[in-house]
Design goal:
With 112 residues, this protein is mainly beta. It is built from no helices and eleven strands. The radius of gyration is 13 Å and the shape is globular.
Length: 112
């Protein structure tokens, strides 16, 4: 069982930025893919971005392309999500994921 702990959420005005972090309890993920998901009130959880631990290949939801950047620090086994040009519709709980393991989530609220 991998423990994932997110941090970095908060309240920000539209147009602002936040950086989310996800620290893992393992020293390596091998060939795994890590991802950020989000869930807004009354909506299904959706994939935001993902990254291959080895090689760093990334992919993004259309709604965040050009605004969000997913990255990882292999030495710290930490995943990041840099979020720029935030919009009110980005308001959600953001979750870190690898395989069947999920973090507890961190709230991001964007005010208009």
């Amino acid at each position: 069982q991998v423990q994932l702990v997110e941090s970095g959420g908060g309240l920000v005005q539209a147009g602002g930025s936040l950086r989310l972090s996800c620290a893992a309890s393992v020293q390596t993920f091998g060939g795994a893919t890590m991802a950020w998901f989000r869930q807004a009130p009354g909506k299904e959880r959706e994939l935001v971005a993902r990254i291959r631990w080895i090689g760093g290949a990334t992919s993004y939801a259309d709604s965040v392309k050009g605004r969000f950047t997913i990255s990882r620090d292999n030495t710290k086994t930490t995943l990041y999500l840099q979020m720029n040009s935030l919009k009110p519709e980005d308001t959600a709980v953001y979750y870190c994921n690898v395989g069947n393991n999920w973090g507890q989530g961190t709230q991001v609220t964007v005010s208009s």
